[in-house]
Structure formats: C-alpha cells, structure tokens
From TrEMBL:
The lineage of its organism: Eukaryota, Discoba, Euglenozoa, Kinetoplastea, Metakinetoplastina. Its EC number is 2.3.1.48. PANTHER family: HISTONE ACETYLTRANSFERASE. This is histone acetyltransferase. PROSITE patterns: MYST_HAT (PS51726). Keywords: Acetylation, Membrane, Transferase, Transmembrane, Transmembrane helix. Residues 30-336 form the MYST-type HAT domain. It comes from Leishmania tarentolae.
Amino acid sequence: MWAYSEAGNGRNVCTLVVNGTLFFLTVIPSTLCPFYVLVFDGCRKDSITDGGLDGCGSDCMTGVPVQVVSPRHSFCGVAEHTVSSLFNHDSTVYLCDSCLCTSGHAGHLQKHLQRCSNAFWIPGDEIYRDEERQFCVFVLDGRKAQCAAMARRICYLSKLFLIDKVTLDDVHFFSFNALFEVDDEGFHFVGYFSKEWTSSSSCMNTLSCVMVLPPFRSKGYGSLLVRLSYAIARVEGIVGTPERPLSKSGNALFRKVWREEVLFAVFALEERGTPITVGELSKVSSLIVEDVLVALQDLDVLFSVGRQGPLLVVNTSEKRKLLQRRLPAEMLYWTSAPS
C-alpha cells in the first residue's frame, strides 16, 4: 500500500507497507545533485551488525541505529550510546561524502553541497592514484590543522562501524590514508586506514584501523587499503603487523592479503635466485614472521630441509593471475614518513 505526503525541508515522502512493516521512500529534489533514498523506520539490528566491518575492531555492536544518507548512497550504522549525541540523536543523518560534514536535515545538506570546499580539494598529500578505476588516496596528517578536522570527521563516521579501534580526540597521533572515488562532481569518500606515527621498538604496526563504507565493500577496496599499507611499509623499510585485536571479518581480510603478499615475495625471491626462507619472506613482504607462518599454513605449502635451511615449495600455476592483482609501484607516491 502506497501513500504520498509532503514533508518539510523540500522532501516528498512515500510510505509503503510490506508484510506489516512500514517503509519510507524519501525523494529529495535538487537540480545540483538529485538522489532518491529508501529510509525505513529504524534499521533492523541484524542488517547492521552482520559482517559490518572490513578491517580491525569488534564485530559485536550495540547502540542506536542510524541511517546515513549521502548524495549517492544510503546505508546503516550503529551509534554507541556514548557517542549518539554526535549525531543529535537523529535516526537519519545526511552526509556530505566529500568533507564528511553531517546534518540532521536534507535541506541543509543541499545548501552545503553547493559550497563544499572539499568537493574538488582534499587536504593532505595524494599518495596513490588509479586513473583506470578512478580513485585516489590522500594521507591526512592528524598533526596538521588543515587535516585534523577531516581526520576527526572520519573518526566520527567510523564510530558507526568500529567500536574498539577508533579514537575521537587523539588524531594527532595518527596518519589517515583516505580513499576517494573521483568523478565529474568531485571526490567521494570510500574508506581509510589509519596508522600511528610511532610504534614500539619491539613491534611496528603497519596499520591501526581500516574501514570501508558499506556501499563500496564489494569492490575490493578493503584488501587494496591493506596491501597499500604494506607497500608503504616496504618503502619505509619496516617489517610490521596490523594492530590487535582483529575482528572476525578483519582477520579474514588480513589472512587473504598475507597469503598474496607471501606469494609475491616468493616470486621476487625466485627472480633473484635467493633461497626462499621464512626470514627472507618476512623481509621482502614486510610481514612479521608470525604473519608469514600463518599465511604459509593457510597456503598448505610443503617444507623440506636442505643445506640452506627450511625451503619453500609452492605451486605457481596462479602466478600470472596473482601478479595482476599487485599494486603497481609507479602509482604510489611515497618517500618516507615525516618526522
């Protein structure tokens, strides 16, 4: 059963009842950026918490359901009771996907989109670009004022999906590597990974948090961000691991990337004619030895003992297919971490 009504803030609302459940179809007209969003009466909890992460953090989330509406997408998240005030206790939040400012009213978002200063400019340095897939990655230094504001908004948005792994105040301790899709209308935030500027001498963390917004999780951006973190670690000469604990979905994501990175290291060592040992795999891949061993176990490889120590025997029939998935080095613009 359909019903049509006029709503405030320039919105037209259609209601639909399906099997006793009430849905709202909100139509927000705009000559600048028209979009049509299905907003229903409170997100069902199981649709929010099941597989909600693409990286580090907890898989169990409880709190206030929040519907996020951007010019191109609509998706659900959960605001903890301790941070629900950040979203003004509204069940629907309107998000600018360029600067990540939020509003409780669609009309306010429409006015903001006409003057958003980040639509075609992102603070920070561009470190990666893929012109074929039309996306790029910027590093935001949380210690710099022009970057800190956007970094903090990334943290606010991430709180809808990550509980344990997101800081709201201490952004100056981290760099935020934010991925944006690019089109004729400007930059559109997809996800990010963060990394501490300094780590302990006993263990270097290549990554602290990684998050991809729900509408983009079928595009492989999560694994791309993790691979990018290891590519940066190799440029810096760091052997490290992601910050623990890992969520269930995060663990699956990292183990997939570890397997690929270890195989890339095998191919590189073969080309050099270097004996393939666990230590060499760790150096070439920038994975710590423990993560290399996890990857080898997942690959179900065969070890034999020779004069050079433990040697690795791997079926390389998938070598060409794997190499096509490796990040092209020429697309990474990174020298070393700033002091």
